[in-house]
Each structure stands twice: as C-alpha cells, then as structure tokens.
C-alpha cells in the first residue's frame, strides 16, 4: 500500500509539473518579434512569425545537403505531361501538425509548441490557424485538411460549437484572401466526444444520430464556404465491439440513410466537392463497417451510393486490414472509386495506426503507379495524415517531416516515369495475357463464349501449355527503376 501511495503521489506531481509547463511554455518561448505579448487575448494583434528561423522551402536538387530544401520535389517540373504539383496536390493535416501533442495510450504529451498557451480557447484556435497558414506558405503548398472540432473548440451546446466554428472559419477565410490556399477537404469529428461512444450514424441513440447529422451539415457548409474540394467521412466508431448486443443490419441501414442525407444536402447547397469515405478495419472499434476498399464498395453498391461517393485510401489503414496500400489503391481505381490518398505508413513491428510519414521509396513508387494509371487524383490529392514521432519535439521537425514525405512521393513519381518510358514492365504484363488476344480470347472478353463453345475449343486445343509468370523479372524491372 505504501508503494502504491508513493506511486500515486509521484503521478500527481508529474501531472502538476506538466500543467505548470503548459501554462508557462508560451510566454517563455514566445517569438522575439511578437508584438503585444503572448496572451491568448492578444491573438488579433499577432504580427510576428511563428517559424522565424525557417525560410521558405525551395527545390535545390538531389545533391543539396540543406535539410530544409527539396531534393526531389520540384513543383513546376513536368513529369509524364503534368507538373509535379498537379500530380501530387499535397495538403497539410491540421490535426496532426497543429494539434499533435506526442501523447500516446501510455504516455502524456511531449510537445508544447511556441504558439500554444495550454488552453483550447477561441483565441488559441485562431493562433493555430495563423500558424497553419504560415506553415503552408513556407512549404510552398496551397492546400490543407481539417476536422471541425480540431480547428475550433467544442462548446457547451451545438449552437455554441457552431458559433465557435464560424469565428475561426471567418479568420481562415480572411487568411486565404490573396492566396491560392484552400482546403483539400474538410470533415466532422464524430469519434472523440463521449456522445459518440456507440458511434455516430450507427449509434443506438436517435439523438446522437441527429446531432451527428447537424454536425456534418455545419462542417460541409464551412468546407464549401472556404472553397474546399472534397468532404471526408471517417467512421472511427461506426462499427461494433460485440455482435451479441449489436443489430448489424439496422446499423448498416442507418449508416446508408445518413450518407444519402449527406448526398442530398450536398446537392441542395450546391457543394461541388466529392464526398469521400475513408476505410479502416478496426481501432478504435473491434470491427468497423468500412473495413477496406472492397467492403466499402460492396456497401455502396448495396445501397445505391456508388455513383455518389468515392474513397479516401490511407496507406496505414490498408496494412491494418491485411492489404498493401497498392492493393487498396488498385481496388479503388479499377472500380472508379479512387478519390484521395492519406500518404502515411505504419511500422511492420507495431500492430496499430502509427501514422508515420512515408519514407519508403519502393512503397511510394507503387502508390504513384496507381495514381498515374488513374490519370491523377484531382479534385483529390495527397493528405499527410501523419504525425511527428513522440520524441521529435523541435518546430523544425514539422518541416523536416513534410519535406521528407514530399520528396519520397516525388521520387516515386520519377521512378514511375522511368517505368513508363522504359515500357518493359507493361510489356511483360501484356505478354502474360497475350493468349487472350486470340479469337477465342476476344469471344470470352466480349461475353459471347458459352460453356458449350468453350468445351469444344478445349477438346480441340488439348492440354494447355502454361507460360511462366516471370515474377522475378517483374520485380527486377521494378527495382531497377528505384
């Protein structure tokens, strides 16, 4: 008992220390050129830089030793008929970049950025928004993504929450003026608040269903107001922990009705953005209804929604579902459902959603192979749904992580250009299926070969001769492009 008491006292002291650190951090780390001090109330007077030691990031080429420069991403360079910036359409994830604290299920926050004051006030929300725009500009990008409750604090009532959101969005609109910066997509956070403990659109409580609809309605409106190009649904709690207390059919029917209402409202207000569903198999629920691309497509087909929504594929979610990111992208692409990509990855030794920046050149090349085959992603793009490691605590690390991720995807695109220009891989695939270039193959692919015809041909041709799949050669060709 004494040991337990000492432990609890130690925990209390640590928490008090963290609180004191949070309250003291902003004034101690305030940028030197900030006018008016660092208090949250002075937000409207903020005129200094949030990243005073960071220059605008420029392309310096692969031989550059400057970590704050692009080695492979050259926005204006034309690759395969498009500028790199048009293939990529990169965006910054507001929640990980400006709300990430380094906390995890086993540890307290490790980061307190210079612009933070330890609160989630409206003034603090505005300060984060100003930091967001400076960050985007210094990276040379013009897109960002957001959850409603990450950019503005939750209020005591829905009306208060809406008012908070309106105030922050008004500032974002003001900051957009004179720039090309717009949201790639917006979304409603329907998973963190206790009201969503049983889900949102699949909640067993009708009042929660109605609240979620109202929240999506507002989030879609502000996304449209800011010129957003897409709107995303991530059903983090749209699933179950146990089927023993779950009516799965009812919940799926309710989810489909919710999506149909979103489609109807999108059309009513004239929002031209694409509605996107982001598949994920589990975490936080045991089983989520949008398990992977194929499961989500089946859901859309059953409920007549396939022409109304597309998919936002996250690479880390793909691996959690037992697939490669390339598999999920190809599944979405060949079914006309590829809308956007969350460019992140996981750690093969960690069985959870670690949201790391993608740095694997091979994986990036496979991702870009699907994007090129798709003709691009517009009006979608790449969202860096990735966060710094818990141990990375310097403001500079935010830039280094994005530069590394952007360069990795750019190298992937350059590698795909090599594969396309060489043509060997495409030729290998064509040759593997060349038997279908025959008269019989044409009949089969046209759906005109019945079983009687196929039996007759099988009798005539005798035992088939099977050609090699040449997997090793395909892998050799692919690796040569890296």
UniProtKB/TrEMBL annotation:
It catalyses: alpha-D-xylose = alpha-D-xylulofuranose. Its EC number is 5.3.1.5. This is Xylose isomerase. Residues 1-24 form the signal peptide. Belongs to the xylose isomerase family. PROSITE patterns: XYLOSE_ISOMERASE. It comes from Dioscorea cayennensis subsp. rotundata (White Guinea yam). Keywords: Carbohydrate metabolism, Isomerase, Metal-binding, Signal, Xylose metabolism. InterPro entries: Xyl_isomerase-like_sf (IPR036237), Xylose_isom_bac (IPR013452), Xylose_isomerase (IPR001998). One of its GO terms (biological process) is D-xylose metabolic process. The gene is LOC120254282.
